[in-house]
Structure formats: structure tokens, C-alpha cells
Amino acid sequence: MSPFAGRRIVLAVSGGIAAYKAVEICRRLVDAGAHVTPVLTHAAQRFVGEVTFSALASERARVSLFDDEDPIPHVTLGRQADLILVCPATARVIGSYAAGLSDDLLGATLIATRAPVVVCPAMHTEMWEHPATQDNLRLLSERGVTVVEPEEGRLAGGDEGAGRLAAPESILTAAAEALAAGARASTRDMVGLRVLVTAGGTREPIDPVRFVGNRSSGKQGYAVAVEAAARGAKVTLVATVQRQVPESVELVLVETAEEMRTAVLDRLPAEVVVMAAAVADYRPVAPADEKIKKSGEDRTITLEPTPDILAELGRSGAAGTLVGFAAETSDVLANAEAKLHAKGADIIVVNDVSAPKVGFDHDTNEVTLLDAAGDRTAVPLTSKRDVAQAILDRAVTLRNLR
Ligand code: PMT
To answer: Which helix (H) or strand (E) holds 19?
Structure first.
């Protein structure tokens, strides 16, 4: 069944050129079974008329706080909504929302709701990169708002750069996740648990400017951390990349495998540890102190093994339930099974990273969870947040069985 079927969504449209793309989002949500109420700012109507949204949505578009038959339209809309999707979100609307201003129907509805909110910024690069915009988004994110970051691409006036509204698929995926997270908000089954997560690829220096690294974006590890926090856990995230996390998550930034090991060991014990990071298996034995000069001749870099953090945790028993990942490209399940036993994990999450849309840097993943008792659970291609949910469901079940 569609994640939108029967859900009430306020589609809040603010005034930017990307407002025309919200028409497509509106149509797709309605097609997927959602009850969509468009709310347009005054400026949005300069780009797309309310009649267009009224014709496509589940009810007429709403444009005014005062000229409405409902004397309190913002409260009614805010209370009834399962989700508010602000698409596109201009710098002004983002700023007003962060400041708690409610000077029009859209702003007042945002302040009057307890439903999850997804904000999809779209604006010129200068406005997107302005510290005020970034600070406001950070604040909103800390308050639990989902921010769907814009892409690089063609902007109004023929300019190119960061700030183009995210693709419809990314917006709809984030909206579905926020709805699911909202529905689960009452399932706070991890309250009282300490959860330690690692994310991102380590960088092992060759010299001050070069490193041995990999393609991990940290998205999967961050999704686990955000999901655990939403379920009430006290979360520490040791990561090599910085992304947005709720305020309650302790974020520790590191670079190398050795730094990650120290940060992880320093923060134990924890009831659940999830090693989603792509830790380099090898590092240069002797990184140069200065940038290596080009000589035109072959150069050999000698590598040595890094500490295996997961295996060390498996031996120590300091992680209550220990979850590792396996990124494989051949003999996927057999290799993962071997890692499960060799590293002493309770669960191994195996992803075949040679498959399309799976693993490194994608917004989606497809995994199989293997556990020490021999159980296998396949999680078909889905968002990384859904994968995170499946991993934590399994970890909680294993804990409860002990
Ligand atoms: O970050 P994303 O772009 O979202 O991509 C997600 C991912 C593909 C990175 C993630 O899903 C994943 O598979 N992470 C593990 C990648 C990896 O390093 O796999 P591995 O098979 O080499 O390692 C097995 C396990 O041992 C992992 O849990 C790893 O964290 C751990 N390990 C590995 C080497 C090492 N020196 N120390 C470790 O702890």
C-alpha cells in the first residue's frame, strides 16, 4: 500500500520559481491516495495561480488567514495534518519559520501544528549559502524538521549552481519517511538505551593533502542515528562527514580509522553499537609530513592494516548488541556470514554494493540482515531510513530475547 494512502498532507507552497514543480508533487501525492490541502503564500500566487492547485488537490487551495469561512484555518489545518510539506521553501519562509513568525496562513499553520514538517529549500546559490539561511535550517533541523537539501543545477535567470529544488523522488521519499516516523513517534522502544553508531569512510593520509579513502557518504550511518534518536535512545554518532542530526545526538567527528577506534572505545559501554562506517582496511605506513612532489617516476606507497574496530568490540563484549555491515561485490552472503563469525558480531547487515541504487552514496539501500542464530531477513530496495528501522527492529528484538 502507498505510504500516502489516506494521509492528510498540507502542501505549503512559497513564492519562488520552483512553485511550478509543486504542482507535480501535488498531483503525485493525490494519485498516491493522499488528501492534499494546498496552502499558498501571497508570493507563490505570483508564480502559480491557486486555481491550478485547487483543480489538482483534494480540496481548494487556501491562501488567507482571514478571508476564509473557517475563523481559525491555521489551527484546523495544523491539527488535521499528518504532514506539512513546504515545497518550495524560500529563504523568507525558512527564516520566518525558524523565528516562529506566523504572519500569514502558511507561517501560522507551521506554528500551529504538531505534525512532522518537511522543508524543501529552493533559491539562488547566494541565498542558499548565506549564513542566515544555513543557521535557520540548522535550527529547524535541530527541532526535528526534515530538510530536503536542494541540488546543483539550472536556476532562474539561466544561472547554474546549488539551490535547485530537489528531485520529486527525493521529496516524496522524505515525505514518506517523515510520515512513517510520525506514526512511529509513539513507538519509543529505545528509551533508556545508549546507542553508538559510526558513519562515513575513513581517510588515511598519504601526505598533508592526499589520502586513501572510499565512497561512503555517511548517509546510512546517519539514518541509523536519527532513527535511534527518534525511538528515544541516547545516541552518539562517530562520523567522518558532517550532516544534520537532531540536537539530542552527540556528534563526534573523526578522520582516520585510529581516531574512530579511540572515539568509539572512549564512549563505551553502549547497549547497541552499529558499525556502519566504511573503515579503511589499510593505511600508509609512513605518511609524508610535506606534500609529495611530482617526480615523473613510479612511486610505491607501503600500506599496513588498520585496527579492526568491529572485531575488537566483538572480542571485548563491551557492546551489548553488536551490529556490523558488510559491503560486498561477490559471494555476498557467504562473505558476510564469514564476517559475522570472524568479527563476533550479533548482526551483520550485508549490502551488495555492485547492485544499482545500493550502498555507497545512494539515498536507497537493499540489505540482508544475518544474525548469529542463523536467521536471515531481506530488506528490499528502500530508503536508508527504512533500512535503519529494520536494523534497529532486529537489534531490539535480539536484546529482548536475551
Ligand atoms: O555511507 P553510505 O554512502 O550511506 O554507504 C553505506 C555503506 C555502503 C558504507 C554501508 O552500508 C556499509 O556497508 N558499511 C560498511 C562498509 C565496510 O567497510 O564494509 P567491510 O565489509 O569492509 O567491513 C565490515 C565491517 O567491519 C563494517 O561494519 C566496518 O565498519 C567494520 N570495520 C572494517 C574495517 C576496520 N578496520 N574496522 C572495522 O570496524
So the answer is: helix 19-31
Q: What is the pTM of this model?
A: 0.67
Q: Which of the 8 DSSP states describes residue 144?
A: T
Query: Catalytic: 400?
Result: no
Q: Write the pLDDT tens digit of every residue in 197-240.
A: 999 999 999 999 999 999 999 999 999 999 999 899 999 999 99
Grade residue 347 by pLDDT with cuts at 50, 70 and 90: very high
Write the DSSP symbol of residue 234: E
Q: Of all protein residues, whose CA lies closest to atom 37 belonging to ligand 1?
A: 308
Angle at 10 between CA 246 and CA 1, to 5 degrees: 85
Q: Enter the C-alpha cell of residue 350.
A: 550485508
365-400 tens-digit pLDDT: 999 999 988 889 999 888 898 899 899 999 998 887
Residues within 6 Å of ligand 1 by CB: 216-220, 257, 275-279, 281, 306, 308-310, 324-327, 339, 351, 353, 359-361
Main-chain phi, psi angles of 216, to 5 degrees: -65, 130
Interatomic CA distance for residues 376 and 364, integer angstroms: 20
With the most atoms of ligand 1 within 8 angstroms of its CB, the residue from 196, 215, 310, 333 to mutate is 310
Residue type, 239: A
CA gap 267, 252 in Å, rounded: 10
Whole-number Å distance, alpha carbon 310 to ligand 1 midpoint, is 9
Phi, then psi, of 98 in degrees rounded to 5: -60, -35
Strand order in the sheet with 234-239: 250-253, 234-239, 194-199, 270-275, 319-328, 347-352, 364-371, 376-383
Collapse the DSSP code of 365 into the 3-class scheme (helix H, G, I; strand E, B; otherwise coil) and give the result: strand
Of 136, 214, 365, 400, the active-site residue reads 214
pLDDT class for 102, splitting at 50, 70, 90?
very high
Output the CA–CA distances (angstroms, integers) from residue 178 to 32, 43, 228, 370, in the order listed: 16, 27, 14, 27
Gap between the Cα atoms of 29 and 40, Å rounded: 17
φ, ψ dihedrals at 367, nearest 5°: -135, 165
Query: What is d(CA 52, CA 25) in angstroms, rounded to the nearest whole number?
Result: 13
First-residue to last-residue Cα distance in the chain: 34
